[in-house]
Specification:
Elements: E1 3-7, E2 10-14, H1 50-61, H2 69-77, E3 98-101, E4 104-106, H3 109-119, E5 126-130, H4 136-142, E6 147-152, H5 155-167, E7 173-177, E8 190-195, H6 204-208, E9 210-220, E10 227-234, E11 240-249
Parallel strand pairs: 5-6, 5-8, 6-7, 8-9
Antiparallel strand pairs: 1-2, 1-11, 3-4, 9-10, 10-11
Length: 261
């Protein structure tokens, strides 16, 4: 799947995967139990290719307007090359998406940072990601909070990401394979939800799984058109407010949402 993000004066491309929810925790082999204690968090640090990460943050992310110090630090801390196939790791810190197999790619670093900043994640927040893909976005979120739940519809990617998290010490991230239109009801409500594919409309089950004051970042619009990257906030009375962050082009959300058109 792929998509394009448009911003005045900057050619930005981002290719994202859609992920989702299906089955129970017991039935799903890619779901891992929650860490028994936050002693596993924060995650191990490494100096591998740190200079490249610093250059990525300064030249690709900070220069484009991302200002959150916690998000910038998260982007510095997570080695993007860990989430790429071995034969493509030399492209890890380029200003572009990179193929990861299964006709999917890892997202452009700037888009990961932009959407993460919009969620305003605080330590202790519970976050749902719809679209695990390579696992990079979830790892960035896991720098901000130990309570990250991530869903992926492509089974080989879901299994690969779960292995990467385990091998690289991201033991607080919980993963699931399936169709994410319905979210992750057992773990709800969430302080923040991030969706990495374009929905024709905002999925109501995801809104309902936000806490009062919770935030969701999601591209909305038809796949054949320019979509809007929205920041949706749920109010205490259940109503929502919406802010348009960017005009983008993402691949469509598939699965249950197709039956609701």
């Amino acid at each position: 799947m792929n998509g394009r993000c448009k911003r005045p004066g900057i050619g930005l491309f981002v290719f994202l995967t859609f992920s989702g929810y299906a089955g129970s925790v017991a039935e799903d082999p890619t779901t891992r139990p929650a860490a028994s204690a936050p002693a596993d968090w924060p995650h191990p640090r490494t100096d591998e290719r740190r200079l490249e990460r610093e250059r990525m943050v300064e030249g690709q992310i900070k220069a484009r307007g991302v200002r959150s110090s916690s998000v910038l630090d998260a982007m510095r801390n997570v080695p993007r090359h860990w989430f790429l196939p071995t034969d493509r790791q030399d492209l890890a810190y380029y200003d572009q998406p990179v193929p990861i197999g299964e006709d999917q790619t890892i997202s452009q670093p700037y888009i990961v940072a932009l959407m993460t900043e919009a969620l305003d994640v605080k330590e202790g927040d519970k976050v749902l990601e719809v679209g695990t893909g390579s696992g990079y976005q979830a790892a960035v979120l896991a720098e901000l909070t130990p309570h990250v739940y991530s869903i992926e519809i492509v089974k080989p990617l879901a299994e690969r990401a779960a292995r990467t998290f385990q091998e690289r010490g991201y033991t607080t991230i919980q993963t699931r394979c399936g169709d994410g239109y319905a979210g992750w009801l057992e773990a709800a409500p969430f302080d923040a939800i991030i969706v990495t594919c374009a929905a024709s409309r905002v999925p109501s089950p995801l809104v309902e799984q936000l806490k009062p004051g919770g935030r969701m970042c999601i591209p909305v619009g038809e796949s054949s058109e320019t979509q809007r990257l929205l920041l949706i906030t749920r109010q205490a009375n259940g109503l929502t407010t919406t802010k348009n962050l960017e005009f983008v082009r993402f691949v469509p959300m598939t699965g249950e949402i197709d039956k609701k058109r």
